[in-house]
Amino acid sequence: MVADAAARGIRERDETGRIGILSADGDEPYTRPALTKKLWTDPDFTWEQVPLNTVADTGADLRLNTLVTRIDRFGRAVETADGETVGYRRLLLATGSRPRTIPAPEGDDRVVAFRSAHDYRRLRDLATRGGRIIVVGGGYIGTEIAAALVQNGVETELVFPDETLGASQFPPALAERHQALFVDGGVRLVPGRRVEEIRAEGNILHAVLDDGGVRAGDAVVIGLGADPVVDLAAEAELAVDDGVLVDEHLTTSDDSIWAAGDIAVYPDPILGRSRVEHVDNATEMGEAAGRAMAGEEAPYRHTPYFYSQVFGTRWEAVGTVDASRDPLTVDLDDGRAVVYYRDETGAPIGVLLWNVSDARDSARAVLVDRERSEPALRARIR
Ligand SMILES: Cc1cc2nc3c(=O)[nH]c(=O)nc-3n(C[C@H](O)[C@H](O)[C@H](O)COP(=O)(O)OP(=O)(O)OC[C@H]3O[C@@H](n4cnc5c(N)ncnc54)[C@H](O)[C@@H]3O)c2cc1C
């Protein structure tokens, strides 16, 4: 998603410069959020709306199925798995994230660690075969996929470690409401459990739980979060910790190399040093990186929001969403709610908007103002 946004950012300042995109993916850049949401739940949303049309819109030279294996910083070139060398004047690293997984039968295509368009097509196929699908993990991918499957008539079971679905993110009353969406939607919940491995027993897959129990299914989706793909940057000896370190111009420790999106640890003007694995961050930072590569000197100042949507309920957030950070819930009309997460001093460090639209800028302002008075906070977003 960063690659597409960056190509557009470059074109804002430079109509003719050559842009090359080397991607390990087999599909041209596409909108990932649709893979767990609209493609399953919106009958008017079709596959044709998934690609971002990067090549047609920007004239980039896109090479798919091309894995970059090494950066030669001093020769200003990258090497690919096919043994090709591609030179650059300016390089953007946008390698995204790799889904975490658990031990499973090698090469079994009924087990999907969900991330890509290829994974979506695989799961669509599995979903049409009938039978039960087990979803592992109660985060964004697990919850969205479980909702998507059950709304498409698939018998769906969701295994997650929290006692209530969402309890590590939302305060108890909101987590109960969140969980009720899934119970009412027909998802069978297996709370308080982790899956340790997947075993194949004949035609059936067994998800082995941490208490020794077993859940049987015909396919398994793994949604256990993702790790930033920083190998290339680390091997090239760029500064890396939890991600690739960039400055306010999105430049790495090598001033010919930029990084953006899921892999970038950047100085956020409100949140401080951050790494964000969400789409608003990818598109805004990607575009800014493209502009910076084409000569823009203004620093990157955007604080991203993130969102999820299940069973028609949408929540958005800015900053920290963590139920252990002293949450203050403000219930609004029509079942809407705002949650303020606070640090040890009582200052807000995150704002969750539950079915509240058009309030992202207000949420950012709350974080800037660090308002500690509870009555004042309660009045901020209505
Ligand atoms: C299924 C799904 C649903 C999502 N839904 C939401 C949502 O609802 N809301 C939200 O805020 N965020 C959502 N996200 C997160 C959002 O999509 C990501 O944050 C965003 O895609 C990150 O963009 P990126 O360009 O950094 O990484 P990616 O989009 O992952 O792109 C990285 C690309 O780099 C390629 N690559 C990696 N290594 C190499 C290499 N060595 N050589 C060549 N190519 C390489 C990969 O193949 C991939 O094509 C979702 C993510 C997924 C997976």
Task: Summarize, please.
With 382 residues, the protein is an alpha/beta fold. The protein has helices at residues 2-13, 38-41, 54-58, 117-127, 140-150, 172-185, 231-235, 279-293, 360-369, 374-380, and strands at 20-22, 61-63, 68-72, 77-80, 85-87, 91-93, 97-99, 111-113, 132-136, 155-159, 188-190, 195-201, 204-209, 214-217, 219-222, 226-228, 244-245, 257-259, 264-268, 272-274, 306-310, 313-319, 328-331, 337-342, 348-354.
Strand proportion: 25-35%
What's the total helix number? Answer: 10
Count of the domains: 3
Q: CATH superfamily assignment of the largest domain?
A: FAD/NAD(P)-binding domain
Quick one: overall form? globular
Low-confidence stretches: none
Q: In order across it, which strands form the biggest sheet?
A: 8-15-9-10-11
Total strands: the figure is 25
Helix-strand category: alpha/beta
Mean pLDDT score: 97
| Terminal Cα span | 33 Å
CATH-assigned fold name of the largest domain? FAD/NAD(P)-binding domain
What is the name of the CATH architecture of the largest domain?
3-Layer(bba) Sandwich
Helical fraction: 10-25%
Assigned CATH class of the largest domain: Alpha Beta
Bound compounds, each kind once, are: flavin-adenine dinucleotide
